[in-house]
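Checked the freezer inventory, then went back to the computational side. Two predictions to log before the end of the day. The first one is the construct we discussed on Monday; recording sequence and tokens without edits.
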Amino acid sequence: MTAPVVVWFRNDLRLADNPALSAAAQCGAPIVALYILDDVAPGDWRMGAASRWRLHQSLASLTLDLAKLGVTLTLRRGPADIVIEGVVAQSGARAAYWNRLYEPWAMRRDGEIKSRLRGRGLSVESFNGALLFEPSRLRTGKGEPFKVFTPFWRACLAAPPPAPPLPAPVKLCAAPALDSDALAAWRLLPTKPDWALGWDALWRCGESAAHTQLAAFLAARIGEYKVARDFMAQYGTSRLSAALHFGELSPRQVWHEVAARAPETGAAFLREVGWREFCHHLLVVNPQLPEAPLDRSFDAFVWAQDDAALKAWKQGRSGYPLVDAAMRELWTTGFMHNRARMVVGSFLVKHLLLHWKEGERWFWDTLVDADLANNACGWQWIAGCGADAAPYFRVFNPVLQGEKFDPDGAYVRRYVPELEALDAKYIHRPWEAPDGVLRKAGLRLGETYPRPIVDHAKARARALAAYAAMRGALPTRQAALAKSPGAG
């Protein structure tokens, strides 16, 4: 009997356009399909609770898809290097294939595993199954990695297009089944309290569901995407970020589907896929990205310490309806609209002067689409210390953002039921409503809904002073934090 090949699934939980699986199928050897839950990650980057919920759904779907081809998905938990060597020894495999990850510790670990297995005489191959272009491929005219998104995206569009997606194997040869953990035994799902109650109805997970969702988006909403994506109450975005992160869908599949079905109207959407690509390229070149600002002058920034304000932000009790709606959307669905992510991020970093890493950690734990590269780049962009960063003096006004992108307050009413009966004129600024309007809406500020924890104008002035102090425009940086803005 031909010795088996181990196919190590990671963030590529699909059958189609899976280069590692396709290579194993082509070689004709019996396949050991393996997923390893390796909880070893440095610092704060062990998989968050919402991501663990999403992983459970994706693995359950992949298990069924592989079973239709006669292959059992083997689940093992522990340090990946130890686990995979054990599986190789137990199965008698003479080859191991996987698709690459780009988190810095995963790249180091995978390199060590590859060397050790090859040292034992195994054929070991890794493939790009997660990105449009390998990070080492795209360079500036000077041969350096890109630091700005727009020229990076131009280079992507000018390069030969990504290879067409690989079809799913129609037949696989299965190796004898190995001992496997039960998925339920990993306890990826919450128990009591079940904070994910109702998520099964919100999220359709797995490869088939991802393709159905992409097809529906391209058929019905791609033409309005460029404008509709900013309106938070509308279903104007694809909501495919989790499927891309866990690899139920590949970016190559998205690229070619958009090219085939929406070559003109899909440009704005494809550009967002490009931003995901850019974030991963940045992470490879800057492995410190989740921990340290790309603009190292921000090492001198004096961040505030305010546990009460941080708690209010997390709980959606800031007194700013748009901010609170977004934070409650996050808690109740595991997702947040992208426009809202920018607003709540700006509020945390600039209104409250709390460290961007506080937001990065909270998103990591609560987003079903939490992705190290995207999360780090997004928070550094908001803070003004990353690549293509929004200038620090750009402070999103949550009232004006709400009035522009949630004009009738539908998004706020959906997630902040205390304000449901409030007139649209005041839905984004309830503290300005006359007493009679508040009474009619059954609203008591400071009781049924909080007053703003900071005043926008004062908070903006404090943020600008802190930025100026960091740049040395004030005698002491501490002056920027000398007086906390009052509640308006």
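The second is the one RB wanted added to the comparison set:
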Amino acid sequence: MTFLKQNSRSILAGLAAGASLTALAIAAPSHAISPAPILPPVGAVATPARANLADLVERVSPSVVQIMVRQAPSAQRVGDAEGFENLPPGLRDFFGRRFRFDFGAQPGWESRAPDRLGSGSGFFVEGEYIVTNNHVVDNARKLRVRFDDGEEAEGTLVGTDAKTDLAVIKVDRKYARKPLAWGDSDRSRVGDSVFTIGAPFSLGNTVTAGIISARGRDISSGPYDDYIQIDAPINPGNSGGPMFNAAGEVIGVNTAIYSPSGGNVGIGFSIPAHQAKAVVRQIIDKGYVERGWLGANIQRVTPEIAQSFGLSEAKGAFIAEVTPDSPAAKAGLQPMDLVIAYGGRPIADTHALTRAVADTRPGESRDLTVRRDGQERTLTVRIAALETPGRPTQPATPASLSDQAALEDGLGLEVAEDEQGPVIVDVVSGSPAEEAGLRVGDRLLMVNQTRVSSTSGAQAAVAQAKKGGRTAVLVQVERNGSKLFVGVPLKA
């Protein structure tokens, strides 16, 4: 089980069940949850849903498996155990090395724990290849696949992709089952009937049914979040299991739940088939996933940023920074460009651009439509392979400050200068600047699309924006080695 987000009210959790998370794995709801009825699509003629579902389950269930995982424990070298050293020498000699399992470890000993046991779900997609979640097989020492008829086989890890939480394992070809067909998840709609098969709490193939509750959910688990939300009950152990449409096609891979208790409360998340299919194909073919790279730091277009450009809608992906010598730089992309289309398809937000670039094969070219200086321009970018970015630098820490002054009374910022220019030294609590996310230590680079090098220059740029009737001012800052734009509302 992998926890994705936790607060005082809710838990977003991966669905692998195992001994390492016993409290969550054995948690039971205080009342029974009945499966949601299967409803026909709007405008369709009602048919005996239960009979149809039973026929579909009978057809696809043999291709769904339970994956049992033995995970290696973390081992580390430890120092003196306080309890051990406080014992009389005679007792220390008597307990010897075995003593460390109960009270601690002597210098240089390696601390070990028993292997962890876990369980998840999976399904055949091609020959001997089985799809599951990355968090099911993460750090696996041994994999074993159990089929719906009780037969078992050893599994071998082919490859994983942590960014989408997908993995592929395989078994000896003699154990292969009929592959399940991928469906078109892009055509699925909110309200469509779905059903799932998996091994919740290691119970083996279990069928649940419900509907699609929402599309395009971002649960902050990674850069490519595009989950399908469902109300079909899924629980720990359902991780990696398939979600089917009414035709018995796989349109999602179950991966997470939203739950205050660890049990199902009717909010589950599945990786859409259009995303999973492409990732799985690469893992089977190459053993890893290769993604496209643009080389630009993008950020969400907030209403304030849209207002600062005189736009009525907060749509598109805003370019905050362009990496030197990157595909974006070579194509002529610039900071403050607003990307509105990629490859001829509209870009609604940053996630849409991130996914579109990632799905582009390195070496291929795409047209990029941007809005710049009030006009639309089309650039051609040749996408490169994604590489791991470097570690960000520390926030700006001015060594010597001078000319400290308020940037603008209604903005809630106080800035000062050092050798490199203006930097924020105070943010008024409850001010527009604080609500917009500006922080002490942010270095000011641009205000109202004007590059600033002094506090007086920054003040003049804000005053000019206010004089021009703008309801928000666009501020570019440098933070942790990255540049970003922030739209700050201006009080009348």
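For RB: The mean pLDDT is 77. Residues 75-111 form one domain. Let me know if you want it refolded.
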